[in-house]
Amino acid sequence: MAEDNSIIEVESWTIRDGVDPREYHEGMRTWFRWVADRRAELFPEWKAASYYHEVDPATLTPTGRYTMLFEYHSEAERRAYKERRKDWSGPYAEYKKVDPYEPFLDDVTLNFWEPVERGLWLPGRSRS
After folding, report:
1. For 6-18, how does the pLDDT look when each residue is reduced to its tens digit (9 = 90+)?
2. CA 70, CA 86: separation in Å to the nearest integer?
3. pLDDT tens, 80-118?
4. What mean pLDDT, rounded, does the chain reach?
5. pTM score
6. Residues β-bridged to residue 50
7. Residue 1's pLDDT is what?
8. SS3 for the chain, per residue?
9. Using an 8 Å Cβ cutoff, are 85 and 16 in contact?
10. How many CB atoms lie within 10 A of CB 80?
């Protein structure tokens, strides 16, 4: 098995009081479309990005907390991307306009996860 040096940046947040959830969700859809259209040019270090809404385990009712997992090919590539984007200049000035942080988010936390023993996952099976 080839060594996987990827790193996962985990961001978690709530939306600000007074923000219309429909407006927030449309902002996230806009952001995902914008990033997808420019992935090769601006985000080659990203291996994947996944978006989640936390739910109460007993009722599966949304709690209002969201999480994004950004998987980078390596920690070195994550740092290179952050350095290139740090002052929001060039093409990243446009990115800042669709970035949901400023208009929508509150209480943002950031953590990092390093994959361990990926090869131990059970293979999936299709549900026909």
Report:
1. 999 999 999 989 9
2. 17
3. 999 999 999 999 999 988 888 878 878 889 899 887 766
4. 88
5. 0.81
6. 69
7. 36
8. CCCCCCEEEEEEEEECCCCCHHHHHHHHHHHHHHHHHCHHHHCCCEEEEEEEEEECCCCCCEEEEEEEEEEECCHHHHHHHHHHHCCCCCHHHHHHHHCCHHHHEEEEEEEEECCCCHHHCCCCCCCC
9. no
10. 14
